[in-house]
């Protein structure tokens, strides 16, 4: 059962060069200037989801995630996240979040997270 579908394009986040530099320092890795690290894209997507699902308040655990990256993302592009939340196990409050990540108008990644929340969401 699909519980919530986020309206397309309503929350966006532009990727800045500073994001890439700070992430490369934290990850102790080199920043390839031709595209954005996929791990950084996952972190930015988490931030987008947090702004609408309030993950900080409700998330207990991320039980798993799968990603398929379709196109590279460049500095200066704005990311948008479309998602739907489906209840998998009501008693344990386990949900699956299907995610489509867009840069401008191009879908750049598909993701699927399995998460546990503190309470059922409506």
TrEMBL record:
This is MaoC-like domain-containing protein. InterPro entries: HotDog_dom_sf. SUPFAM superfamilies: Thioesterase/thiol ester dehydrase-isomerase.
């Amino acid at each position: 059962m699909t519980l919530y579908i986020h309206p397309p394009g309503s929350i966006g986040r532009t990727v800045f060069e500073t994001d890439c530099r700070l992430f490369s320092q934290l990850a102790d890795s080199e920043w390839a200037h031709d595209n954005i690290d996929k791990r950084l894209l996952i972190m930015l997507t988490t931030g987008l989801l947090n702004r609408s699902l309030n993950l900080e308040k409700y998330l207990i655990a991320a039980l798993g995630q799968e990603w398929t990256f379709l196109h590279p993302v460049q500095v200066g592009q704005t990311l948008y996240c479309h998602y739907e939340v489906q209840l998998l196990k009501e008693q344990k409050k386990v949900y699956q979040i299907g995610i489509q990540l867009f840069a401008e108008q191009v879908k750049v990644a598909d993701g699927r997270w399995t998460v546990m929340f503190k309470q059922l969401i409506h």
